[in-house]
Design goal:
single chain, mainly beta, 13 strands, 4-stranded mixed sheet, elongated
């Protein structure tokens, strides 16, 4: 099947009507375009006669064929409901943070081991225990973990702790839990005194 030229170029074509074909003189490689055969019709006296097509109907048929098909108007449907925003409050469905004591009383730890994690100060660092990021407690020396309850004496620069201690009733003492690491004494070692 041959391709028809676009509508804009249709006026540049010279066509002539032969009996049943339209000739294209502008493009020589397209020789003829066949037209549908003419149907005979009955005359007023019962005689069959051939219906002739006039030049106007052929011209309108050719231009209708040459006219490019019009694109159907596509209806764009937008969302009728707004998307919901993200909610920060998940209602307790967030996973736990695993805060708490990791090494119990009497456990043997190496230097750098995490002893406990906490959101607020529940355990305070004692001897050979360091305070890391987010109030994490870690061991500074290799040894055994010990927990003690001691009187809490806040640093003078810590205004919140000083206010808390001063608001206590007279004679009351504030105790806190401290975590210590008792260093293990190395066995089988000696100190070199002199060389002979």
């Amino acid at each position: 099947m041959t391709c028809l030229p676009p509508c804009e170029k249709a006026k540049n074509f010279i066509h002539s009507l032969n009996t049943n074909t339209v000739k294209w003189h502008f493009y020589p490689h397209i020789s003829t375009l066949p037209l549908p055969p003419l149907k005979p019709a009955n005359g007023p006296l019962g005689q069959k006669k051939r219906v002739c097509l006039n030049n106007i109907s052929v011209l309108s048929a050719v231009t209708a064929l040459l006219r490019p098909p019009q694109a159907a108007a596509l209806a764009v449907r937008y969302a009728s409901k707004k998307t919901g925003g993200s909610s920060k409050n998940l209602g307790g469905k967030s996973p736990g943070k695993r805060f708490g004591i990791k090494k119990m009383e009497g456990h043997y730890v190496h230097a750098g081991n995490i002893l406990g994690t906490q959101r607020h100060f529940r355990w305070h660092p004692g001897a050979h225990v360091g305070l890391g990021k987010k109030k994490y407690l870690y061991a500074l020396e290799e040894g055994t973990v010990r927990y003690t309850k001691e009187v809490y004496v806040p640093h003078p620069n810590n205004s919140e702790a000083v206010d808390l201690v001063t608001k206590l009733p007279k004679g009351a003492v504030l105790y806190k839990t401290f975590v210590h690491v008792v260093p293990a004494k190395p066995e089988g070692t000696f100190k070199l005194v002199a060389m002979l």
